[in-house]
Structures are given as C-alpha cells and as structure tokens.
C-alpha cells in the first residue's frame, strides 16, 4: 500500500463489529424486557404478611404504609363500601389485616391489595 493512503477495513471486520453491536442491543433489550416483566408482578398477601412481621422496623413500616396506601386509594373510589369512625386509627386497620392473614393462610397467595380491600369491606362496612 502506498504511503499516505489509508487502509480500508475488510468486510469481515465490519461484520464482526456489526454483529457485536447487534448482540449488545439484543442483550440490552432482553434485560430491559426481563426487568419490565418483573416490575408488573403485584405484591402477594404473603409478602405483605412477611413485611408486617419483619425484624427491621423499616420493613414493618413498609407493610403498614402499603395497607394505608390501599385504603387511601379505596376511599377515593365512588363506591368504597368502607366506612370508618372518626376515631379509627391506623393501628386498628393494620392489626385487622394482620389478624386475617394469620387466621387465613389461604389468603397469602392472593394479591395483597385485593386481600386488604376484602378485609376492610368485611370489617368496616357502611351501615
């Protein structure tokens, strides 16, 4: 090759770089897809129960806050079918859910929000 000229890449080297690039993109998309699939899985009542019984205070607070979030969302619906007295405290609500989870282990496999809703409707109905 004469001096001052640049060597062009061989088609094989370009193919190798293209293949590596495509594989990188494919792997990235696969990882993103796997992450997205995991993120849509809902909390089970068993997982909620485990957090309420957790050793760490932050874990127990996480379960407690989850219950309050579900109740807050339920109260925003037009037909909540749940009524609390003015003096109803969060501890009573959390204890009610926790009691049901301990007494009815068959509930542990269900969606946590659904179980919280059903426990609230059964124990705090509007009369």
Task: Explain the overall architecture.
The longest helix has 29 residues, at 11-39. The chain contains 5 helices and no strands. It folds into 2 domains: 11-41; 45-123, 10k-s Protein, Hypothetical Protein A, Chain A. It is 65% helix and 0% strand. The protein has 127 residues and is an all-alpha fold. The model has no long low-confidence stretch (mean pLDDT 80). The radius of gyration is 27 Å and the shape is globular.
Which key phrases capture this entry?
mainly alpha, 65% helix, 5 helices, globular, 10k-s Protein, Hypothetical Protein A, Chain A, 0% strand, 127 residues
Q: Under the CATH scheme, which class of the largest domain?
A: Mainly Alpha
Silhouette: globular
Biggest β-sheet strands, sense, barrel: none
| SS elements, strand count | 0
Strand content bin:
under 5%
Helical coverage, percent range: 55-70%
First-to-last CA distance:
94 Å
Task: Quickly give the structural class.
Answer: mainly alpha
Note the run of SSEs as H and E. Answer: HHHHH
Mean pLDDT: 80
Q: What name is given to the CATH topology of the largest domain?
A: 10k-s Protein, Hypothetical Protein A, Chain A
Uncertain runs are none
Q: Tell me the radius of gyration.
A: 27 Å
Concise structural overview:
The chain is mainly α and about 130 residues long. It has five helices and no strands. It is globular, with a radius of gyration of 27 Å.
Map the helices and strands.
Blueprint: H1 11-39, H2 45-52, H3 57-75, H4 90-103, H5 112-123
Helix pairs in contact: 2-3, 2-5, 3-5, 4-5
């Amino acid at each position: 090759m004469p001096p001052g000229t640049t060597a062009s890449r061989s088609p094989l080297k370009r193919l190798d770089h293209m293949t590596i690039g495509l594989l990188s993109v494919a792997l990235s998309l696969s990882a993103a897809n796997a992450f997205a699939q995991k993120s849509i899985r809902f909390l089970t009542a068993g997982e909620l129960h485990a957090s309420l019984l957790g050793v760490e205070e932050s874990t127990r607070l996480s379960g407690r806050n989850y219950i309050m979030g579900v109740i807050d969302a339920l109260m925003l619906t037009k037909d909540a079918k749940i009524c609390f007295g003015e003096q109803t405290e969060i501890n009573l609500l959390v204890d009610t859910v926790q009691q049901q989870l301990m007494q009815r282990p068959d509930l542990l496999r269900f969606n946590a929000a659904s179980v919280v809703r059903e426990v609230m409707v059964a124990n705090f109905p509007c009369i």
